[in-house]
Amino acid sequence: MTQPDRYAVFGHPIEHSQSPRIHALFAAQTGQDLIYTAEDVPPDRFESCVRAFFDGGGRGLNCTIPLKEMAWLLADNRSARAKRARAVNTLLLRGDGSIFGDNTDGIGLLRDLRDNLGLNLAGTKILILGAGGATRGILAPLLAERPDRLVIANRTVATAETLTVEFGDLGPVEGCGFAALAGRRFDLIINATAASLSGELPPLPADILAPGGSCYDLAYAAEPTPFVRWGQEKQAVVSADGIGMLVEQAAEAFLLWRGVRPQTRPVIETLEAERRTAK
Ligand code: ATR
């Protein structure tokens, strides 16, 4: 009897990852025989764990915080979108033994914003909070939607300014500190800081969300994040966390690995229902 193909997500910490659940639902839906596990892998053991996983017959990996830049470095070849992001969340072992790196985060966010939540980004003013690896992964696909302006606000202003230089050829992008946001209004505010994970909120002017605007937190948790709650208080039309993006980026990884695209909507609905009953 043949063994099921093996996949995993590496991260640190990893215990709250929903990825094994998502890929199990995808596998059941598409009739694919595979095993997907979550492994706690600290950065100093990342390379040896990747090599051991693939040497031991593993077929593909997801890499999450704080391993995406290391995964980018480790890959032998990279997709165009991974090259742009300088971060990799999906690794695939190719038939010739080489490791291919892709980044499915940006397309995952876009699918959730556009297809699942019904937001049209063309001509809008977008604000991204934070200028780390998560922001890097989503800039190119957001700019491809042709917003009127995309502002990156970060605690460390220089990091935001570096990104504007790197991505300025793709559209009207601007970097600043949080203090420079006073008096400005945005149609979509995306929280890409690590602040949510520690229960904090970046300092935001009270009237920064335009009427009819929306909020999106790249992080997700069992309870609404502080930023999702902030958006609800500001009457955001949509104030969502990143569970939809997580499912969408996973679907794109599944497609790369298995050549089949699973349906995401029923999986998002299942996870939402599980969150409600876990309360
Ligand atoms: P990731 O890969 O998740 O983006 P990262 O590269 O460590 O993680 O980036 C974390 C981002 O969250 C950075 O923009 C960081 O701001 P700095 O560049 O100034 O460090 C931001 N961040 C982390 N904690 C924050 C907090 N308490 N308030 C505001 N921003 C915070």
Automatic annotation (TrEMBL):
Catalytic reaction equation(s): shikimate + NADP(+) = 3-dehydroshikimate + NADPH + H(+)
Active site: 68
Record: residues binding shikimate: 17-19, 64, 89, 105, 220, 249
Pfam families assigned: SDH_C, Shikimate_DH, Shikimate_dh_N
Molecular function as annotated in GO: NADP binding; shikimate 3-dehydrogenase (NADP+) activity
Pathway assigned in UniProt: Metabolic intermediate biosynthesis; chorismate biosynthesis; chorismate from D-erythrose 4-phosphate and phosphoenolpyruvate: step 4/7
Domain Shikimate dehydrogenase substrate binding N-terminal, chain residue ranges per copy: 9-91
Domain spans labelled Quinate/shikimate 5-dehydrogenase/glutamyl-tRNA reductase: 120-196
Amino acids binding NADP(+): 130-134, 218, 242
The keyword NADP belongs to this UniProt entry's keyword annotation: yes
Keywords (A to Z) from UniProt: Amino-acid biosynthesis, Aromatic amino acid biosynthesis, NADP, Oxidoreductase
A single cellular component GO annotation: cytosol
Domain SDH C-terminal: 242-272
Gene Ontology biological process terms from the UniProt entry: amino acid biosynthetic process; aromatic amino acid family biosynthetic process; chorismate biosynthetic process; shikimate metabolic process
Highest rank taxon of the organism: Bacteria
Family assignment from sequence similarity: Belongs to the shikimate dehydrogenase family.
HAMAP family named among the record's database cross-references: Shikimate_DH_AroE
Main function: Involved in the biosynthesis of the chorismate, which leads to the biosynthesis of aromatic amino acids. Catalyzes the reversible NADPH linked reduction of 3-dehydroshikimate (DHSA) to yield shikimate (SA).
NCBIfam families from the UniProt entry: aroE (TIGR00507), PRK00258.1-2 (NF001310)
Protein name as catalogued: Shikimate dehydrogenase (NADP(+))
Record lineage: Bacteria, Pseudomonadati, Pseudomonadota, Gammaproteobacteria, Methylococcales
Gene (UniProt): aroE
